[in-house]
Each structure stands twice: as C-alpha cells, then as structure tokens.
Amino acid sequence: MTALRGKEIDTFLARPDPARPVILLYGPDTGLVRERADALLSSAVADPNDPFSMVKMDGDELAGDPARLVDEAMTVPLFGGRRAIRIRAGSRNFASAIDTLAGMAPKDCMIVIEAGELRPDAPLRKACERSRSAVAIACYTDTERDLARLIDEELRANGTTIAADARAALTGLLGGDRQASRNEIRKLALYTHGAKEVTLADVAAVVTDASALALDPIIDGAFAGRAAAVETAYAKALAAGTYPGQIIASAQRHAAQLHKARLALEEGRSEMDALESGFPRLHFSRRTHVETALRGLSSERLLRIISLLAEAAFDMRRQADLAGTIGGRALMSIAVNARARR
C-alpha cells in the first residue's frame, strides 16, 4: 500500500519519486490540495502554463473515456522535455485508468490528481494505494503544529518574529484551508513590514478575532439552514469591521469538522460519538444547531459545500473589493440549500 504519512509526505513532495509518477492528493483542505498540486507540477515542467507541457483534464469527462489518460501519459513530447497531467476528480469513477497505468511506465510524465475527501473504499483512492506507480497523499486541516510552522515560514521570509501571545491568537484564527491561512499570514507580514516583531495589537488590527466577534451564529446558522439569521449576523459582523475572509475561513473549518463527523455517522457510529469525533470541544450553546446540520447534510453535500467555500475564498483574494459580497453569497447559498433539502 502506497499511502504516505507524516514526514514521508514532506520527503516525497521535496523530491518526488520518478518511479511513482501518479500522485493522488485528496482531503477536506482544498487549499492544501491545490498548494501541493501547484508545487508538484511546477517542479515537473518548466512552464505549467505551456499547453504542450501541461494537460488539464476533468475527472468526470475522463470517466467516459479512461483510455484517454493512458494515451496522454504515454505521449512523447513534440518538442522534448517533461510533461504533466493535472486532473480535477469529480463524482464519476475513472480508477480503471490508474489500474491500466500500473502496468506501464509513463516516461517523463507526472500525473497529479486533485480530489476532495475520499473514504478508504473509494475506487480512486484504492486504485492509487495499491498501484506500485502511484502514491496517495491525504490533505487534512492543519494542526496547531502545522500552523505554527506556517507562521514561522512566512514571517521568517519577511525577517520578522512574533510575540508568544500574538502567535497564540493568530493560530486560533487560522486553519480550515491552507491557502486562506497563508494569505492571512502574508497580509499580516505586509502590515508589519519593517518591524522586528509582530505583536498582539498587529494581529487584532489585521486578522479579526473571530471568537470576540461571535462568528458562531453566522456559521452555525448557515449550516443549519437559518438564512435570515445568517443575513443579519453577517451584516453586523461586517459593520463591526470583521474581514469577510476570516468568516469564510471559519466556515471552512466548520465544514471540515462536520464532514468528519458525518463520515463517522455514515460508518455506523452513534450520533454522540460522531459529533465528538468532529467537535471534541463543542460548546453546549452550539450543540442544537450543529446536530441539525449533521442530520441534514450528507457527506457528499458537505464536500460540495467545502468546494463552494474554497472557490469563494479564492474569488475573495482575486477581487478584494467584492469580498463582502462574495462571502455573503456563499453563506446564503449554504443556508438556503440546507433549509430547502432538510
């Protein structure tokens, strides 16, 4: 079985094994999936934007013609050099293409597959884990240790350190999506450029304290289908100066936790055990809303929500002036759909 864990992941990403050119990246942290995919593909080809070097495929379309992946993987580059194939997995199964490639040796071609959360028995995950020419890498929400390393990495590049109380506050505001977290830290680094140390006041000025402004009603309301409450609470948060990207980051963390709990429920665990697996420190005041969301949203619907939030976070970074509108639209979409399908 070729499912990498812990330090094996860092070692492989730093120096990919050419004997295992098929790489599956999956998990609830879509930002981390994308970040790792970008890094791998940048190391594989000279120019990821060159259509002769990079082939992009949609997983659902590939499922209709799995042989296309084999053809592309075995194609000799017209002008020489290495090639790469980037696949965005959808809901349809193209695992047979991975099985076929297992008996071949794609030359100078890296194949990177991006997927959401996959259960152990998912055909794509099973195919990659049993193939001698593939690896499967899980991309889960960053732990406190991961976030601490990310903070140090970004601030070190800026020649800045961070005070202990500022680090603790910042860590509590990050997570859920790697790219969103990295973006927040870079924004903080830009704000403190030239300073020797980032202080708690800097964090408070740039990265809104979600707990102090009580973002829970927005997040819980959205996933429980309470659209009117979400609209009101979101407007108040923006009026209070809350950065909308932070609200979406909180929603991403919540979606990942709900998805973990829902998978446990679908595997036959009791609702109490499932809830504990996803929310080990859930405050009693939130329990009713979280239980409502857990019962009403399937794991597949939660994956779609995770994807929706990732796209919203990306769009907010590209169109900062429309961040408030983009965030509100994403939250209302979750709330309306959660209520309509209960």
Structure description:
One of its GO terms (cellular component) is DNA polymerase III complex. Its EC number is 2.7.7.7. Residues 24-88 form the DNA polymerase III delta N-terminal domain. Belongs to the DNA polymerase HolA subunit family. With 342 residues, this protein is an alpha/beta fold. It folds into two domains: 3-138, 3-Layer(aba) Sandwich (Rossmann fold), CATH 3.40.50.300; 144-340, no CATH class. It has helices spanning 7-14, 30-44, 59-64, 67-74, 95-102, 123-130, 144-157, 164-173, 178-191, 200-206, 216-224, 227-239, 244-266, 271-278, 287-296, 299-318, 323-340; strands at residues 3-4, 22-26, 54-58, 83-88, 109-114, 134-138, 161-162, 197-198. The chain is globular, with a radius of gyration of 21 Å.
Q: What do the pLDDT scores average to?
A: 86
> What value does the Rg take, in angstroms?
21 Å
For the sheet with most strands, the description reads: 6 strands, parallel
Please give the domain count: 2
